[in-house]
Give the backbone structure.
Amino acid sequence: MSQRQVKKLVTSHRQTEGGGFIVRRPFPTRGFPQADPFLLLDEMGPIDYAAGKAVGAPDHPHRGFETVTYVLAGEAEHEDSAGHRGRLGPGDVQWMTAGRGIVHSEMPSRELQQRGGRMHGFQIWVNLPARDKMIAPRYQEIPRTRIPEAQTADGLAKVKVVAGEALGVRAVIETRTPISYQHWTFSAGATVSVPLPREHAAYVYVFEGAVRVGDREVADGQLAVLGEGDAVDFSAAGHAQALLLSGVPLREPVVQYGPFVMNTTAEIQQAIDDYRSGRMGSIAR
Ligand code: FE2
């Protein structure tokens, strides 16, 4: 097997989103606008909210891509104009395919807003290929009990497989194009080699401790862009956590205007018109 090496390291920046919550965002940035087929990676928190201070992202539209929310701590309440409504607690995943358009609301749960508490999680945006941009919206709500977990024989490297396959376990989530989304937790002395299809572009985001990826050390808050190969080797000298994201690049033009991601400016104009005239609906309350 040929090992993938780190081609580029991107340090995340802090950014304010939605109703005023701070995220760590390795991309998009000016120097690294996208990680085809992924458009965005946000780490929300960890933050300890005082009572009455928790904020979220009230009603906003999406078209042309998917948003994937993975909660590590706290509780979120999501609802949308297609009538979906769900609560996400620690370990739960919401894979939302906006397709031709949806109005979405992502808020901390009422209890978290009232009492305060810790919030930590991820949102990634997965681009849709041109042929799928106008499909019907879809929700996949996957509770933590349905996210498969596995570990190395020595128990030092553990993985939760949100999408794709690792250490012999396969995720239940269906993706429109081949995607892998793995959450790794390492204890001191962990080593593991993870096979990845050669045609995938692959990225590793470290969000606790430090992880050696191939022959480079990747620090907390850094994203490693991996080169070609058919496996990625991880090791960790201490406790660490990382996401491994990979997928077949779409290699299509990306025209983005805020929450709309299409292939041409005419399609963006259409999305703005459709949203303004109410054709993406509204959330019934
Ligand atoms: Fe959203």
Observations:
- The longest strand covers residues 38-49.
- The mean pLDDT is 96.
- Residues 6-247 form a domain with the Jelly Rolls fold (CATH 2.60.120.10).
- The two ends are 54 Å apart (CA to CA).
